[in-house]
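Researcher: I'm comparing several assemblies side by side, and this is the next one on my list. It has 724 residues spread over two chains. Same procedure as the others: predict the full complex and return the structure.
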Amino acid sequence: MPNPRFLQTAERWKNQAPPEERNRVEKTKRAVDTQDLDYFFLGGKLGKETHDLIVKKYGADSPFVTQNVVYDKNVGLIKGSKLGYIIALNEFLPDGMRTSTSYDLQKAIDGKKVFQKGTYEDLGLVLYNESGMNEYLARDLAGQIKDRQELRFPALINLTGLKLRFENKAPNGIAFNLGDESQIIYAPILSCSNDRKKFSKLDGDGLPIFEDNGDHTFYAGSSGLSVLFRDRYSDLYARDRYLVYSNADGRVLVCREAARSKSGGK
Amino acid sequence: MANKKDTLQDKVQGLYGRISQDFYLNRDDFEANGQRYNSALLLGTLTELNKGNMLLFGEYGGGKTTSAEYLNAVFNGLPLDLVKRVAIRGNPQLTEEKMVGRPHYGKMHKGEEDVVWQHFVMIGPKIFDEFNRIPESNQAVVLNGVDRGEWNYLNDFVSTGRQPFFATCNYADRGNNGLIPPILDRIDVAVESGFPGVMNALHIAQDYHNDKDEILRNPELTRKALAILNSGKSYEEAQKELETIVQQQQTRLRDAGFSVLSEEDKSKIEQGVRGVVLDRDAEQYFAFLVSEMNSSPKYGQKRSIDNPEGDKQNGLYLNATFAGSGSRREEKSLIRYAKSLAWLQGEGEVNLDHISQVAPYVLWHRVRWTPETEQTFRDSDRKDPLDLHIAKTLLGDGTSEMPGVKKRYSESQANYQRVIDLAGHGKIDQAVQEAKEFYADGRGHPIFLDTLKDLGGR
């Protein structure tokens, strides 16, 4: 039997319009989950070619996309990482390839496909609310999500499926567009109240599973729009990064459907 | 001179301004809705309007007692010398007989029992100076009086009703004691009487004989008042006669340009404050705060006998940062003071700024932060005493390391509103289902656990 005082208060506090039915397809299962994937840090011929295409489209000094991300021919690797670059990269990657999610990176580390220590990787966006950090982009993205489905904070947005949009009013002149494949995951675990909790494993959405004596630490954000990334010690961050920041420790992890690559891409 | 068209708010602001400009020189350190105040004087003013209880901390000679004396004198039409005369100065030898009442020794010799009430009890607005110099065991003597205005001695009692009560405390030194938690819980708000700034200090120092107080003093009326108090008349009779003294002093103050408050004004103010309501944001912030202070996913609810660190595994909410729990008195204090602040600002509704700005002053003296919480903030840059600084930070936006209640409120409010909307539109099962999802087995905000309990889902 509900507490009548709660119901009285709810009657007073409620919005006149009844809440919309929640869109139950807000979290789509990744089609690639069940597939055999290869993981590698972007480099070699593919890295060089895609980098050139990105530079051609966005310019070599675009703060939001290319600034401080370079192809290092000495080691044959893309060095540096920022969200804009990764989203742009997805435009140019061949079929069967995409950039990685948080889940992918953990899988790559566990499978010893990459040596992550000493590098950082950008993995997604976390939308905490519509004000504070990166407010313009937060509001813009929140509006797009609301048009499509119910928005609940904090929301994890994977980078695959996102597009860049030239937008004069946006800081740096670029904003995000949700694509058809965009995955928006309600992720209460990324809430600021879980700041500095320990974890060793991630769940199927790439979100931390907390345990008292975990090997890594999660650092939560609390407002606006934040970058989700793992740092050189594999700690998971949803705060303290400028969207345009990049340095030479950044790496871009790419996933390739292994079966397809072996068969020449069918 | 106060204009007849002045609203009651104008009158109160006028008194606040007069004390601030001419008597208790200070610096502003409190802001609500764009208006700046001095916290000691503002909350002291609200204490007068509310007939509340206030604790003033500060250094020796920092103006704690002085501010309380001015407030009681100006807001209640009492001669300043009378206010000083009836205040109690705390010391370890204070007994119930010196504070509350004593046997009538003459009658006692004749085998009769009668009580002589101390002036401290007989005069409404009260000041207990250096409160923490009385031993903890004697602090309980004033418990009921402070809380309800009921004073007991032998088989007699006097009911004064709630009256403004100010207690001053020096910071810990060798001569003072801790304040017992039941007393602290009965104190509505606590403030620090801070350093007023060099120029104000220069001004204060040059008035070394307190000549400015002359306008508030009235030795003749004080003598008359003491004669009434010593006459052996009953409390009710004495109060009636004291009213004449108050009226005479108020006339004098009015002539000196003070916007004096009559009893009728005070009654209207009380009604006005009662009529102020909380807007939805203020009520929901209150709900989030209360849920964090009282709920414990690990132990069922917050208790002073449980280790608060145990709740850390469920997230860095307020419940993991202090020992003990919230109290119903504390919540009443918060609502009362937030409402009176809104009233003073001429608002019909308490908004988020009113309630979140007042909240730290209601909590900081009541809450025992864990050593780990204190350690986190010990070396941070701050303007306030450590406990108040922690309260302001953790009840506001917090830091990047320890987010605050206001931040969590802004983060989870949309989700909470959805549950409220579902329940408000009769979709109880769906509200339970979504509250469960938002609570996320203890990882979500404790407000959702509380909601689940209210909806019968737990």
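Model: For your comparison table: Chain B has two domains: 8-260, 276-454.
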